[in-house]
Amino acid sequence: MEKVIEVRKLMEMLFDIIQYGFMQRALLSAITISIVCSIVGLFLVLKRHSLFGDALAHVTFGGITLGLFVGIYPLWTAYLVAILTAIGVNKLRESTIIPPDSSIAVLLTSGLAIGVILISISGGFTVNLFNILFGNILLVGNDDVLMILITAAVVIPVICIFYKKLVLITFDEKQAKVSGLNVTWINTLFIILASVSIIASIRLVGVLLISSLIVIPNITALMLGKGFKKTILFSCAISIIAVILGIVISYYANLAPSGMIVLIMVSIFLVTIIIKNIKFTLNKMVISNK
Amino acid sequence: MQPIIQVVKLSYYYDSYPSLDNISFTVDKGDFLGIIGPNGAGKTTLFQCVLGIIDDYSGEINLFGSDIRQNRKTLKKVGYVPQKKSVEQAFPATVEEIVSLGLIGKKSNKDAIYSAIEFVELNAYLDKRIGELSEGQQQRVIIAKALVSEPELLILDEPTTGIDSTAQNKFYNLLSKLNKDKKITIVWSSHDLNAVESLANKVACIDRKLFFHGESEDFFGNEERMNSYVEFAMQSHMNLHFRMPKNGKSNRGKKTDGNVI
User: Fold this and answer.
1) Are A193 and A155 in contact, with CB atoms under 8 Å apart?
2) Number of continuous H segments (helices) and E segments (strands) in chain B
3) What percentage of residues in chain A have a pLDDT greater than 90?
């Protein structure tokens, strides 16, 4: 009986906060971003490019500060810098002997360094850099929501169109080439989509926590899913649950939503590992008893 | 009859080092060509040239009558099984999903997917992740992926290296069935000379240059030729699973002349 009352209370709390306009925008944006990042993220994780999202976010930070420095709408410079860098790194990965993780490290630090230098030259900006670094989904405006929805409306259909080709390239680039696919072109397209998705996600968790959205739901889903499509669905579900809970809890507890979202994702990941291990041990015991 | 593959004076230099040096041979329809040679002999490079992955070579490669550099559409008639690489256990795609990738650019066909999986005897693993299968089973999945589009030519690059002998035998039976029953032309590189001798009707020995190309009997039935091959293979520190013919004679029958280059 008590449990029923608790669930009812929780539902009432959810219903209460959904009535606020800022909360509607926050939830809509967060759910959309979590779906986009889960889809793009699975390919990045399986290509062993997990940190690529992190590096691109840092470059985006450089792009945002560049925009603020020269007086252009910062997201445009962020898009431009991130896309150009992504294409550059993709080329670098294909054509040189530099290990991919090292080129990502160079990218990551140089993006942040440019940002720091521009901040020091300008003597600081009027915008809240804390929000760029750590995000604040509760502050999204109608323009941001529109930008996030447009990003999703572009990224998701393009990934769907190229889905099988991307799976094959992720599985084995050589086989993809023999199948007649233009691997370089598809990789470049994907990396541009990843850049666009990451920029859209900065509002939610900020530059410093962006890789959590890409990596954690996907590595959790990889422990659960049987099949590529099912793994994507699990990842989306985990991500959506985490962002909704994170936003609601942070609102009532007056905590930073980005941190709360990431901690919930990590908790789901840890619980999944524990359950998996218990299941594995039990199965082993059953087999040895037979 | 037009050859399936025609390689003419093929040379490829990697960092001014000749990986392939003036190689010429043909593969005819229905052939089962075994390519042997020591590690680093250029077998994989040769395949990469034939498949259009490498295109900055000198010479000419015609696939189904047209230059592979001019017309990559002929690759649609080719199935390719690369050197075995172990798939990560976490890779989430199922056997069915992997095999369906062989139909990219073609109409999705569930029946073709299931019959390819059935052919490699993996029906029971349809919904299993490829990463959860043994290495031998993973290679059979890749074969099924290559077969699903009904290729006329199957190219296999040392597909059984590192696979246990039971799985290897199963794999060899499969190749034999493909060549004999489905009439698929096969080009296959291997270090397993016993398998090459029993399966392939033609043999090519390469070590950057073409050492021999001709009928299998001409190679395995010629003691002198075999010995000189063993010599150059030993010199190249080749890891051979090698069985010398009894009294220097092959257990195969008829002998014809091969081309020693």
Assistant:
1) yes
2) 8, 11
3) 33
The span from the CA of B195 to the CA of B206, in Å, is 17
Angle separating helix axes A142-161 and A21-46, nearest 10 degrees: 30
As beta bridge partners, residue B26 has B6
- What CATH number is associated with residue B197? 3.40.50.300
Indicate the SS3 state at residue A290: coil
pLDDT confidence tier of residue B247, bands split at 50, 70 and 90: very low
Backbone angles phi, psi at B83, to 5 degrees: -55, 140
Query: In whole angstroms, what separates CA A108 from the centre of its chain?
Result: 16
Q: Is B93 within 8 Å of A171 when comparing Cβ atoms?
A: yes
Longest dimension (CA), chain B: 55
B93 contacts in chain A (CB < 8 Å): 167, 171, 227-228
| Burial B18-55, CB ≥16 within 10 A → b, else e | ebbbebebbbeeebbbbbbbbeebbbbbbbbbbbbbbe
Region A85-99: what's the mean pLDDT? 72
Which chain B residue is nearest to residue A227, measuring alpha carbons?
B93
Alpha helices (H) along B35-94: 43-50
Rounded Cα distance, A120 and A143, in Å: 29
Backbone dihedral angles phi then psi of residue B210, each to the nearest 5 degrees = -85, 115
More confident residue, A257 or A166: A166
- Token pair in block for residue B166: 């039971």
What domains are defined for chain A?
Answer: 2-209 (1.10.3470.10)
For the segment B2-11, the average pLDDT, to the nearest whole number, is 92
**Cα(A286)–Cα(B133) distance, integer angstroms:** 22
Specify the amino acid at residue A41.
G
The enclosing H or E element of B50 equals helix B43-50
Q: Which of A167, A174, A229 comes nearest B53 by C-beta?
A: A174
**Residue keyed to tokens 């002929």:** B74
| The pair of three-digit structure tokens given for residue B3, joined into one six-digit string | 């050859």
Least Cα separation, residue A231 to chain B (angstroms) = 7
Assess: ipTM above 0.85: no
Q: How far apart are CA A152 and CA A158, in angstroms?
A: 10
- Domain containing B93 equals 5-260
With contacts defined as CB-CB under 8 Å, which chain A residues touch B88?
46
The minimum CA-CA distance between A173 and chain B, rounded to whole Å, is 10
DSSP-derived letter for residue B124 is: G
| Span B215-225, average pLDDT | 86
Nearest in space to A39 (alpha carbons), one of A201, A183, A246, A269 = A201
Interface contact B82-A168, CB threshold 8 A: no
| Predicted pLDDT of residue A223 | 92
Nearest CA of chain A to the CA of B225: how many Å? 35
